[in-house]
Amino acid sequence: MNTPAVSIRDLSFAYTGQEQVLDHVDLEIQPGERFGIIGPSGAGKSTLLLHLNGILRGRTGKVEIGGIPVGEESLPEIRRRVGLVFQNPDDQLFNPTVEEDVAFGPLNMGLSSEETVGRVEKALGAMNLEGFEKLSSHHLSLGERKRVALATVLAMRPDIVAFDEPFSNLNPAMVEQVIGIVSGLKATVIIVSQSIIPVLAVCDRIAVLNEGRIAAVGPVDVIASTG
Ligand SMILES: Nc1ncnc2c1ncn2[C@@H]1O[C@H](COP(=O)(O)OP(=O)(O)O)[C@@H](O)[C@H]1O
Ligand SMILES: [Mg+2]
């Protein structure tokens, strides 16, 4: 039997002093899948995503990444395996230049500067950002900043790339561009989104999250026809 890329068992979560946001969530995602999580605003999608690399941890239940339980001791390994691409690229970019932003993760993982330089070059190349190395991300367009943010994640070479609302605030041409980029990734891909159409275009399977519960999960064509 294959070890799932992500296994979530009976996960419930509430922010301190708040009502339950995730309610007994069970989900399994296989290696290489492109998996979409859709649902209305406030359903708990972003909260669920933050559990994949241990930024948040549920009071009950279990999250495993490639068979490794997410916990205090496993966090460095979990964060090597799971790259989160935040909804707002400005939450991900904080260094003076693009190349420093992209080098940050690999250097933080303890990689040599030689290895890091190679990874920065590859990641920027994959995002069509050659020539952007010395620029500050402040001076780039939203679409460019989104590509830099993804490059910072790709440079870590994660097994799983998880996107929070990658299609928000993009014009149709940019949505097409993101669809192309996501479709070209070799990693397991998880996309959380309120925009259903691009998710249908990219994903193999989809879960519908509603009020913190998984309301449905299945192949794209099945979910689309019961929509
Ligand atoms: N940091 C936080 N502190 C308290 N409540 C939060 C926090 N982040 C989100 N929430 C609440 O949790 C619920 C789910 O939010 P979220 O996971 O952001 O949903 P979605 O991404 O599906 O829009 C909402 O009611 C939201 O107000
Ligand atoms: Mg959200």
Tell me the strand percentage band.
25-35%
Major pleated sheet: 6 strands, mixed
Give the CATH topology: Rossmann fold
- CATH structural architecture: 3-Layer(aba) Sandwich
Low-pLDDT regions: none
Query: Helical region count?
Result: 8
The figure for the number of domains is: 1
User: What is the CATH H-level superfamily?
Assistant: P-loop containing nucleotide triphosphate hydrolases
**Helicity level:** 25-40%
Mean pLDDT: 94
Span of the ends, CA to CA? 31 Å
Quaternary: single chain
Number of DSSP strands?
10
CATH class: Alpha Beta
Radius of gyration: 17 Å
In N-to-C order, the SSE pattern is EEEHEEHEHHHEHEHEEH
Strand order of the largest sheet: 6-7-8-3-9-10
The small-molecule ligands in this entry are: adenosine-5'-diphosphate, magnesium ion
Structural class label: alpha/beta
Inertia-based shape: globular
